[in-house]
Amino acid sequence: MKNFCYEYERPAVTVDAVIFGFAEASLKVLLIKRGIEPFKDKWALPGGFIQMQETAEDGANRILKKETNLEGVFMEQLYTFSAVNRDPRERIISIAYFALVKQDDYQAQAGDDETSAEWFEINKLPSLVFDHEKILRTAMYRLKGKIRYQPIGFELLTDKFKLSQLQDLYEVILETSIDKRNFRRKILQMELLIDTEEKEKNVAHKAAKLYKFDKNKYDELSKKGFNFEI
Amino acid sequence: MKNFCYEYERPAVTVDAVIFGFAEASLKVLLIKRGIEPFKDKWALPGGFIQMQETAEDGANRILKKETNLEGVFMEQLYTFSAVNRDPRERIISIAYFALVKQDDYQAQAGDDETSAEWFEINKLPSLVFDHEKILRTAMYRLKGKIRYQPIGFELLTDKFKLSQLQDLYEVILETSIDKRNFRRKILQMELLIDTEEKEKNVAHKAAKLYKFDKNKYDELSKKGFNFEI
DNA sequence: CCAAAAGTGTTCTTTATACACCCATGT
DNA sequence: ACATGGGTGTATAAAGAACACTTTTGG
User: Fold this and answer.
1) Distance CA A20, CA A130 (A)
2) pLDDT tens sequence across B4-57
3) Quick one: average pLDDT of B129-141?
4) Could you tell me if B79 and B182 lie in one domain?
5) Tens digits of per-residue pLDDT, A61-101?
6) Domain identity same for A93 and A29
């Protein structure tokens, strides 16, 4: 049974993923209900042991795919958690990632497997196992810091979005209110949004224009020293 | 000999440290000459296997102490490198840290052991083993990004410094030139420097005032939402 | 016609940038 | 006396912050 032997004791290594979504003007996190001990039936971040033939990033993508059936979304290494007793069983080091997904895509594609994954509003979280609350706090802190200087907010919205959705997103994540006119001017002045010429439909008010984020243009400008900032 | 057996195969886990110093107006990194195979006598970042009773941060501090005899300096987790073949022997995952040390302190205290550690100017590096060049690039990128928004530059200077030293530091790390008057005004307006009432001595020109960074005041202001920015 | 969200400009304040000369000290 | 780096102020441009009304649409 125990076939892998080493000269020195080794910690186990896992990968955990903080998967953020945004819907109904609130920030959400995907949690899974543990199916095994320890802490069976408690909520946890999706994760698993790293495989010998995969990088940590591969592992994080594998977990993302398993839980959401999504691939190719924004994903970034968050931090490596190595407290000696973070797992009651044995020494386990966790390399944590955070991902930003377009929640509508997920809702369309997932639901076809029976893992008990569920979206939780960031302000209505259950208690989590191990040090997962700490990991989640770290992820939120990172997201909050990063969204102002990199155009990652768009990763949480559908491809076409209206400016008020983008503003809602910033307001929720940064926990501030932003002046509508100043926000719109600032975003539009960057010239990173493509006007799709479409409008939202069937709303009981003036229909909003829909925009797309121009990733190619952003990449171009970045090379020339442009810095995104909200 | 191989006494530690597990049900599943496990990667080994190491900690590597990118230790930055600043002297003679240039940024330096501490490298060690490897004493063992593989790559014996090649230059590498200081590092070692993580111990079962220490966190990664403890490990990084242990390595820092071993190589420089310093403790309590600025240290922060950088990134975890997990490419499958980054080490030719076997799968080794490295949790990398970066540290900022006051190089003068080091020169005063170290030299009492015979490890072949040596400071290299960042622009005159030898080639490094494994993926250590990648780790170093990652560290420099992080340092460059971070120094503008957190007062970590002071960690590289002696306790008392003159403004031109601080400016040199920013110019070297950011790879730009900065207007002297604008720089001085910006730094002094923050009111985070304490005028020590001392001046440099024995220089063939007007003696510069010496300042200290007021960490307590910075911590206070941070709590109230102040953001350091150069 | 009413409710609900979209869309739009101007003024004022703050911050960033560009720029050149005199001062103190040791040799 | 001279070479070296220290120290200082102002004017202009750019960016940020504050603020209220009209428009479009479905019910």
Assistant:
1) 19
2) 999 999 999 999 999 999 999 999 999 999 988 899 999 999 999 999 999 999
3) 98
4) no
5) 999 999 999 999 999 999 999 999 999 999 999 999 999 99
6) yes
Indicate whether B142 and B178 sit together in one domain: no
> Are residues A121 and A18 part of one domain?
yes
- Both A53 and A138 in one domain: the answer is yes
Asked if A90 and A25 sit in the same domain, the reply is yes
Whether A216 and A104 map to the same domain: the answer is: no
Report protein residues in contact with nucleic acid strand C, where contact means CB under 7 Å. A 162-164, 180-182, 184-185, 199, 203-209; B 179-182, 185-186, 199, 201-207, 229
Residue in this structure with the two tokens 């000999």, named with its chain if needed = B1
Per-residue model confidence (pLDDT) at position B112: 47
pLDDT (0 to 100) of residue B108: 43
The answer to the question of residue B119 being in a domain is yes
- Residues whose CB falls within 7 A of nucleic chain D? A 179-182, 186, 199, 201-207, 229; B 162-164, 180-182, 184-185, 199, 204-209
Q: Which domain holds residue B192?
A: 159-223
